[in-house]
């Protein structure tokens, strides 16, 4: 039947509509990408603000804890016996100043306002600060707690500092002086540089009235003044609260800030969201999209012109279409993805060989039957609804709900996840839909494994940070409470001995003996602290001797019978492998002592010429699956092995001599492994 209008006109109309659709779709796509990029940037800025809030809170908490510690020591009976300018007080200040991690120093002001002592003796000793706000806040008044001064600039050196102070009380709580921690603004600003960002975001710390305390990049001319970008009525009012604040400067430049308030200190932290920089990747993406759209439009126009010419040769086109139909079926049969075609009643019209393999069904057994044959019972109703909606829509193709769990069913009843895209066409006035299916079982499993691994890494990172902080605190306590007190007592004894010698008086032998004992105890403490950090025998004698020493120490303080066999110890010839293998042996023996209830342990190190094999086997009660998969100690050992390009395995041990327990195996390549870490 001939058409009532020229086919060329239909082609022109269709090409014009397609061009309009492409243009509108590209514009909508670019706008959607821009909106998504801005939202992502703001979410990232919000997360950075939370991070810097915690970091800043921690810095001020650390400084205040140092102040409180010194305050408590000076207000004790023992601390009050020393004058504020004494050597003992200097030692206390110098020791506690190390906890500030080079961000500031400590100094003491007496009741007359004079700086009489400090962790750095070369700074400001003898200066009178009675006019300073932190001195006036405490002089002649009860203890108001922590006082935080405004940022000030040293007139001589030009350095900006922020002073935090607490009152020092005497025996009857009379005013004795002030302990002050002076934080350098430059060091506070350096805290922000440890976080590597995709692009620079200006970061600032303010006092609660809007006074600028620190910023990155540094703003020298604005420090100690009210920041122009802040509006009092828009600032966060409660601790931990974060707000997005828009500011427009006098020159018309608009900026967006993410601002939060510290929970325990009167400070604000802001991170600027540079939307122009955030859209850099969007601009890079827009160019190829726009270019692709232009090429597509050119292709559409070209194809339209081609069709207009070809419509004049109707017979040749019919032959070409028949040939294309044959090629289409050959292509359908040869593609790797499963292809299923259905009519409007969802009866199967097309079932290619890949679909036969996926569903384990023959095409002759499913042709003409309902699509329900390929679906689980639980999904038939919902899938029917999705297909009906698509059939009634104006769209010609789409992905079938990729966010949903679409399932298929094989001939044996096995259900499996699939990924589907569907297209629609009209043939002979009837709607026909074609679905391209892909089995995503392996991908889903890989995604789940990756998610679990990421969770383990996050947990490991957090735990390692906690362990690091605990270890630092323990070492600090031991250095101060144990070694520091011993050395201080020894110093006092030496001062007494010196005075006796100068006076020509007789030296009591028992006092000298006590001094020797104190020195021995101090030396023992130093050796214990050093050994806890890193066994010196590992550097001095090597891996085998270090392991033998540690095994002997474990056996000495436990009931374990440990058999050690290290025939391949000479192949451990670099520090990275030696440290990793020693720490794995150390962690494994610690876990066995704590949890395994074992009596025998066998530790061996062998080589097959290509790799080193470390085996640690016990005869304990075994290990629960939860700990085996996600235990922090095991994750740490696994990460040490992965960093060296090795393989870590843990399993149940079955041996004729050792009862069922746990077997840990570590395989390290003998060839050096290099790993690049991208931060």
Beta content comes to 15-25%
Q: What distance separates the N and C termini?
A: 68 Å
Largest sheet: 6 strands, antiparallel
**Mean pLDDT across all residues, rounded?**
78
Helical region count? Answer: 18
Protein described:
By secondary structure, this protein is α+β, with helices and mostly antiparallel strands. Among the domains are: 117 residues, PAS domain (Beta-Lactamase); 107 residues, Beta-Lactamase, CATH 3.30.450.20; 81 residues; 134 residues, 2-Layer Sandwich (Heat Shock Protein 90), CATH 3.30.565.10. 47% of the residues lie in helices and 21% in strands. It contains 18 helices and 22 strands. Strands 1, 2, 3, 4, 5 and 6 form a six-stranded antiparallel sheet that branches. Strands 12, 13, 14, 15, 16 and 17 form a six-stranded antiparallel sheet that branches. Strands 8-7-11-10-9 form a five-stranded antiparallel sheet. Helix 1 runs antiparallel to helix 7, helix 12 runs antiparallel to helix 13 and helix 16 runs antiparallel to helix 18. It starts with 6 loop residues before the first helix and ends in a 10-residue tail after the last strand. The C terminus is likely disordered.
